[in-house]
Design a protein that fits this description.
The chain is α+β, with helices and mostly antiparallel strands. 55% of the residues are buried.
Length: 453
C-alpha cells in the first residue's frame, strides 16, 4: 500500500467553498487595523514522526504567512496524527495552536448538515427525491431568471426542487457570494446572507436578515431561481434550506438535531454554532490579506461567534477543532460507526458519498480562492461534498473520495476505500493566498515514505 501517494492525491482531490472574504471586505464598515508582527513559531509540540510537514508549518509561521496552523491525518484506526505550529493569533501572548483550537470552518459545515439529512433519509422521514414543497409549501411554485447576471426577468420553473437537488447544489438556488447585478442587490435587500464574518458586518446583515430559519426559508421561496431545477451545478444556499427541512422532518430545532445525532454520539465536544464563554480562549483570530498584509478581520477575543447567530447556518455556520472534524471524518471512513457508536448504516454512508447529481448534470470543480480545486480526474457531487468518479493516477485517490473546504482556508477529505482522512485548519481570506494544500501534500507524503508500515 503506497500510503504517501494516497494521502497526497486525496488531499489534492478536494473541492471547496465560498468567497466570503471578498464579501467581507466589501461590506466592512471601518478601516482594518494595521498588521501585527507574527510571533515566533511554537516548536514545543513538534511532531517528530513527520519532520517535513512540521518544518513546512513552522516555516509558514516564521515567515509571517499565518499565525498558526494544525492538521489532522488518519489512516484506518491508527491514532490520529496532529501536526501544529504557531499560535491562534498574532497578538503577543496568544495561545499556542493545538488539536483543540477552534476554527471557523465555513462551508465545511455543509457535509455535517448533509449527513444530518442522510440520517433522516435512512429513517424514512425524508425522501431523497421528495419535492422540497412537501416540507416547505412555499417552494411549490418557483420562478427562474431568464438572464440571471443582468435582469430579474423570470419564467415559471419547469419542475419542483427536490431534496437531492438541495444536497448537490442543483436546485437552481443562488448564493450572495456568487450572485451578480440585480440578483445580488435583491439578496442583500432581502437579507439572504446566511453567514457571519465579524461584528461590524453582522450588524449590517441583521438589518435585513430574517430572524429565524423558518422565516429565512420562506423568504428565499419568494425569490427567483438562477437556473431551472436539476439542470446544472451552481453553488448555493441549498444546505441552509436543508437545515429547515431537517427541523421540520425531525420535529427538533436544526442545531439540536445535529448536536443530539452527530456531535454528542461522536464525542465532538468542540463543535459550536456559538462559542461558549468558557471556550472563547481557544478561538483563533480570522485574518484577511489586504495586499500583502495579514490583517485581523474577526479577532477571537471579540468574535461574532461569541454571540448567537440569527439562526444556525447549515451552509457556513460552525466553529470546530481539528480533533472534532477528524472524528466526523473517521465516522465516515468507518462506514457510519466510531468507537462502537453507530451514526448511520454503511449503505447510508455509501449513498451519501456517491455521485448524487441529477442525470445529465456535471460538476467541474470550483476556483482555488474558494477553498477548492479543479482536478483532472472526473468528479461528481454527493451529499454536501465533491466525489471522485474514478481512481486517480496509479489508483489514488480512490474512486469515491469525498471532501469539501472552507472559505477561510480549511480543508477536509475522506477516502473510504483506503480509509484515509485529513483535515487542515487555518483561518484567513482568501483561502488560496498560499499553496498550503499542495505543499502540505508534498511534505506529508515525503514524511510517510520514511515510516515503516
Amino acid at each position: 500500500m503506497r500510503v504517501p501517494v494516497m494521502i497526497g492525491a486525496a488531499l489534492v482531490a478536494l473541492a471547496g467553498t465560498a468567497t466570503l472574504g471578498a464579501q467581507a471586505l466589501r461590506q466592512e464598515a471601518r478601516p482594518l487595523p494595521a498588521r501585527v508582527p507574527a510571533p515566533d513559531a511554537v516548536p514545543a509540540r513538534a511532531n517528530a514522526a513527520f519532520p517535513g510537514t512540521q518544518a513546512l508549518f513552522d516555516g509558514y509561521v516564521r515567515d509571517g504567512k499565518m499565525p498558526g496552523i494544525v492538521a489532522a491525518f488518519g489512516i484506518g484506526d491508527r491514532p490520529t496524527q496532529f501536526i501544529a505550529a504557531g499560535r491562534i493569533a498574532t497578538d503577543a501572548g496568544a495561545a499556542a495552536v493545538t488539536p483543540d483550537s477552534l476554527w471557523r470552518v465555513y462551508s465545511m459545515t455543509k457535509p455535517v448538515t448533509a449527513m444530518a439529512a442522510m440520517i433522516l433519509i435512512e429513517e424514512g422521514k425524508i425522501g431523497l427525491d421528495d419535492p422540497l414543497s412537501k416540507y416547505i409549501p412555499a417552494f411549490a411554485k418557483m420562478r427562474v431568471l431568464t438572464s440571471p447576471d443582468t435582469s430579474l426577468d423570470s419564467e415559471p420553473a419547469k419542475s419542483q426542487i427536490t431534496i437531492r437537488e438541495l444536497l448537490t447544489h442543483t436546485s437552481g438556488l443562488g448564493y450572495n457570494i456568487n450572485a451578480q447585478g440585480p440578483l445580488l442587490k435583491l439578496y442583500e435587500a432581502q437579507g439572504i446572507v446566511p453567514a457571519a464574518v465579524n461584528t461590524p458586518v453582522e450588524a449590517l446583515a441583521r438589518r435585513t436578515r430574517p430572524a429565524t430559519l423558518a422565516a429565512f426559508a420562506d423568504r428565499v421561496a419568494t425569490l427567483p431561481l438562477v437556473y431551472q431545477p436539476g439542470t446544472r451545478w451552481h453553488y448555493s444556499i441549498g444546505l441552509d434550506i436543508m437545515g429547515r427541512v431537517i427541523e421540520i422532518a425531525s420535529g427538533k430545532p436544526f442545531d439540536r438535531f445535529v448536536q443530539q445525532r452527530i456531535f454528542d454520539p461522536l464525542a465532538m465536544t468542540s463543535s459550536f454554532w456559538t462559542v461558549p464563554p468558557q471556550d472563547a480562549a481557544r478561538l483563533a483570530t480570522n485574518y484577511a490579506f489586504v495586499g500583502d498584509q495579514l490583517t485581523p478581520l474577526d479577532p477571537g477575543a471579540t468574535s461574532v461567534w461569541l454571540k448567537p447567530p440569527s439562526f444556525p447556518y447549515g451552509g457556513a455556520g460552525l466553529v470546530m477543532s481539528a480533533r472534532d472534524y477528524d472524528r466526523f471524518l473517521h465516522m465516515l471512513a468507518d462506514q457510519g460507526t466510531l468507537d462502537g457508536v453507530r451514526i448511520m448504516k454503511p449503505e447510508t454512508v455509501r449513498l451519501a458519498m456517491s455521485n448524487l447529481l441529477p442525470a445529465g448534470v456535471t460538476f467541474g470543480g470550483v476556483a482555488g480562492n474558494t477553498g477548492g480545486t479543479r482536478a483532472a480526474t472526473p468528479m461528481g457531487f454527493g451529499a454536501g461534498g465533491s466525489v471522485y468518479l474514478a481512481d486517480g493516477p496509479a489508483g489514488v485517490p480512490s474512486k469515491g473520495t469525498y471532501g469539501w473546504g472552507g472559505a477561510a482556508g480549511t480543508v477536509a477529505f475522506v477516502d473510504p476505500v483506503k480509509r484515509i482522512r485529513g483535515t487542515i485548519m487555518v483561518n484567513y481570506f482568501p483561502a488560496d493566498r498560499w499553496p498550503v494544500r499542495e505543499q502540505t501534500v508534498a511534505a506529508f507524503a515525503g514524511d510517510l515514505t520514511r515510516l515503516r508500515p
